[in-house]
Amino acid sequence: MSHTAFLAAAVQMTSTGDRARNLATAVRLVEEAAGLGARLACLPENFSFMGREEERIAGAEPVDGPTVAALQEVARARGIHVLAGSIAEKVAAPGKTANTSVLIGDDGAIVAAYRKIHLFDVNIPDGARYAESETVEPGDRAVVAPTALGRIGLTVCYDLRFPELYRQLGALGAELVTIPAAFTLYTGKDHWEVLIRARAIENLCYVVAPAQVGRHSANRITFGNAMIVDPWGVVLARCPDGEGVCVAPVRRDRLEQCRRELPALKHRRL
Predict the structure, then answer these.
(1) Range of weakest confidence among 69-73, 104-108, 214-218, 241-245
(2) Integer Cα distance of 209 and 238 in angstroms
(3) Catalytic: 261?
(4) pLDDT grade, residue 16 (50/70/90)?
């Protein structure tokens, strides 16, 4: 971790099918995070659009398209790193996109892009059906970005349930991991915090987990509880219900202390 300490921010949103409103909200909340002193502001999964699938596909953009460009402008103007939690990235396969998380540096340059590997194909007992693989092309590689703030590992939502990905990020030197999400209310109330804290504890790293919250459509409700967790599994900050920002310090001495007191990463056998 390059800086001895900096403030990170997790953003919580209720995105809908209104792209203009979503982007305006995202920019406003990143600006709010910057005003609070954050050096890293993380937006949730699908921050720019949560609506009908055909509209999402039709509105897909390249990584350097207008949605990310708007955030690059804010990052550059405010001197803040920004995680565009995930966008629908345009790909060659007809009728499909990638679910792509984009990290922007404090100079406005794109630092890294990660394409969600694990796709959410689940029939939830509350009546909702999710079949992400029908319209999303999965990624195939783990991504850790070296930045002035430290080594940042990128993941998205359902990835959270697959600890082997986070072990790989740890092996690549991740000191902080981002988990932008749109976790369902049904699963989130029982699993979200447990899994977030587990990923932090087992990999002895910071986790910033921005989230979608509330009702997005007639059959889509997300859990919220965007949070920031330290390498010991302590929840440092959490967003209440509704859209907003929570911030917490990311400290090099705390990371090193946790890894020194419990050197589990050095004891791996498999």
Answers:
(1) 214-218
(2) 9
(3) no
(4) very high
Asked if residue 159 belongs to a domain, the reply is: yes
Identify whether 269 is part of a domain.
Answer: no
Residues 6+ apart with CB under 8 A from 65: 87, 90
- Domain with 97, as residue range(s), is 5-264
Judge whether 270 lies within some domain: no
- What are the tens digits of pLDDT across the range 233-262? 999 999 999 999 999 999 999 999 999 999
Single out the catalytic residue among 42, 45, 243, 246.
Answer: 45
| The model scores a pTM over 0.85 | yes
CATH of the domain at 97: 3.60.110.10
From 42, 89, 96, 116, active-site residue: 116
> For a pLDDT cut of 90, what percent of the chain falls above it?
93
pLDDT tens for residues 116-156? 999 999 987 766 788 999 999 999 999 999 999 999 999 99
Catalytic residue among 89, 96, 137, 157: 157
- Check if 137 is active-site: no
Domain count of the fold of the chain: 1
Q: Which pLDDT score is estimated for 230? A: 98
Is 116 one of the catalytic residues?
yes
